[in-house]
Design goal:
mainly alpha
């Protein structure tokens, strides 16, 4: 369900860059910004207000009955989350995709100049990025339901690590296309994985406050990523050279996630949020 709900984001990433280029060519970049603002203010804002006025609670289900506790059998408050080791152990890996993804896309013109790759040819990587993001999001949703989101933590950053590691030594623009596809694997997986992870870890009673905390951290990461990498470019370290460090970040975060997963298994007893195979006789209605 989380994967399906997030498809709009991937759809926008697939079509909006092309529509924006067309709009800039037709009416200029200033008018394009104005048009985007008008669409948001006059179109989407009223639509959201109308949609959110309708109750989203399933019929016949009370709010209390539908709550699911997190680790330790309780519902965590935001102040408890930030004072516990788990959130800070997760943060380096959670911040990697927004930091790296935004930096890569922000500096693509710089990469084009350093590598002498035509921007128009580099743009052909966007369809692969969008397709892999959608496919990864749906696959990660199935895997999270089957094995639990915690099981996926150590592996979801590996495609992004491989993606940025491709850029540093690359001589062919085909490496950029492969990088975009691999980056889409992690971006789509992260979108679904984290959506399933927060309620499993911290419960659903205060899920909005906890997701807001995580989202604020990720948005901050997207904001500082281009600034830090841009400052390093000004100091003489081009972005392809920085990609070795970004790949190392992903590798170290994956190792950290392995330790986090092991610590969670030892610290908290098995809980009902992790799917488990049922005995065959129980599934068919026989006595256990």
């Amino acid at each position: 369900a989380v994967a399906i709900a997030g498809l709009g984001h991937s759809f926008g990433e697939a079509i909006l860059p092309a529509l924006t280029v067309i709009a800039i060519a037709a009416i200029g970049w200033r008018a394009t910004w104005g048009l985007a603002a008008a669409i948001l203010a006059l179109g989407f804002a009223p639509l959201l207000a109308w949609l959110l006025a309708e109750s989203r609670q399933p019929r016949g289900v009370t709010a209390e009955a539908d709550l699911t506790a997190g680790l330790g059998g309780r519902h965590w408050a935001r102040r408890e989350v930030v004072s516990h080791w788990l959130f800070w152990a997760l943060l380096p890996g959670v911040l990697a995709p927004p930091f790296i993804g935004t930096s890569v896309l922000f500096h693509q013109v710089h990469v084009s100049e350093v590598k002498d790759w035509p921007l128009a040819v580099m743009a052909l990587g966007y369809p692969a990025y969008a397709a892999m993001t959608v496919g990864s999001s749906l696959a990660c949703g199935w895997l999270a339901d089957r094995f639990g989101p915690r099981a996926l933590l150590p592996v979801y950053l590996l495609p992004m690590g491989a993606a940025v590691a491709l850029i540093a030594p690359a001589t062919s623009v085909g490496a950029w296309h492969a990088m975009m596809a691999l980056m889409g694997l992690t971006q789509g997986g992260a979108q679904t994985l984290l959506g399933a992870l927060w309620p499993e870890l911290y419960g659903t009673r205060r899920l909005g406050a906890i997701k807001a905390l995580a989202t604020a951290a990720m948005v901050s990461s997207t904001a500082i990523g281009p600034g830090i990498t841009g400052a390093l470019i000004d100091l003489g370290l081009d972005f392809p050279g920085q990609c070795w460090g970004l790949a190392l970040w992903c590798a170290l975060a994956s190792v950290l996630f392995l330790a986090v997963r092991a610590r969670l298994a030892a610290e908290f007893p098995p809980d009902e949020t992790t799917p488990r195979p049922q005995p065959a006789r129980a599934r068919t209605g026989g006595k256990a």
